[in-house]
Automatic annotation (TrEMBL):
This protein's name: Aquaporin Z
Annotated source species: Microbacterium esteraromaticum
SUPFAM superfamilies named in the record: Aquaporin-like (SSF81338)
Transmembrane intervals: 21-38, 50-71, 148-168, 180-199, 224-246
Record GO cellular component, one term: membrane
Keyword list, A-Z: Membrane, Transmembrane, Transmembrane helix, Transport
């Protein structure tokens, strides 16, 4: 194989960023779209609790599809917390983190904007009702489907994002990874949503949280900081821990 053909096989940074944007779009459009169109906005969590399964599966399936489509180009993060956790583990250079995150946020915002546009042509008052209900935003207190408080949201975001990152790093490891990584990652996200949807409507992804909060009104925006900070905290702790526990070089 020639040097030129080898170099051509390596995706450019532009291709990686486009892949991250498209993948995040698919994740937000599929998962949040299901929540908006199928959930009736969770005004009655008891009556509508069965739809949690549909939303959890939608997020998991969207991630599975996005991963197999775009991970060969970018690594398949689609999530600022995953990108920062991967950098903390040494999986990607820190210099790539900022452009990845920008692409992810842009992809997510375009997806929620498309959903908002679809809602403009929905039934009478559908869009107003969706926005008044928070537009599938994350939150605690009155925004929590189960009425959980802020500390519950903080704890669950740190724990679940951390474990999500550990699974991601494990199944995508360059030497110990698996060709079924996309399935494992998608099912992990499904499980995470089954656990955390009733608590804070399940973030583990700051790009997803930003995408919905901008259309959800003042209260989701005022609570957004939790879903920017604590998924990143969980992912970075997991990234540093993975590097120390599983990727450290043995002492001769």
């Amino acid at each position: 194989m020639s040097v030129s053909s080898t170099a051509a096989a390596v995706p450019s940074l532009g291709a990686k960023l486009a892949a991250e944007g498209f993948g995040t779009f698919l994740l937000v459009f599929g998962g949040v779209g299901t929540a908006l169109f199928a959930s009736k906005h969770f005004t009655d969590p008891g009556a509508n609790s069965a739809v949690y399964v549909a939303i959890a599966l939608a997020f998991g399936l969207a991630l599975l599809v996005a991963f197999y489509a775009f991970a060969p180009l970018s690594g398949g993060h689609f999530n600022p917390a995953v990108t920062l956790g991967a950098a903390a583990s040494g999986r990607i250079p820190w210099r790539d983190a900022a452009p990845y995150i920008v692409s992810q946020v842009v992809g997510g915002v375009i997806a929620s904007t498309a959903l908002n546009l679809i809602g403009m042509f929905g039934p009478d008052a559908w869009l107003t009702t969706a926005q008044d209900a928070g537009f599938a935003s994350n939150g605690w207190g009155p925004l929590s489907p189960g009425g959980f408080g802020m500390l519950a949201a903080i704890i669950i975001e740190v724990i679940l994002t951390g474990f999500f990152l550990l699974v991601f790093l494990g199944v995508t490891h360059p030497e110990r990874g698996t060709p079924f990584a996309g399935i494992a990652i998608g099912l992990t996200l499904t499980l995470i949503h089954l656990v955390s949807l009733p608590v804070d409507f399940s973030s583990v992804n700051p790009a997803r949280s930003i995408a919905t909060a901008i259309y959800g009104g003042v209260e989701p925006l005022s609570q957004l900081w939790v879903f920017l900070v604590f998924p990143v905290v969980g992912a970075m702790l997991a990234g540093f821990a993975y590097k120390a526990l599983f990727d450290s070089k043995p002492i001769d």
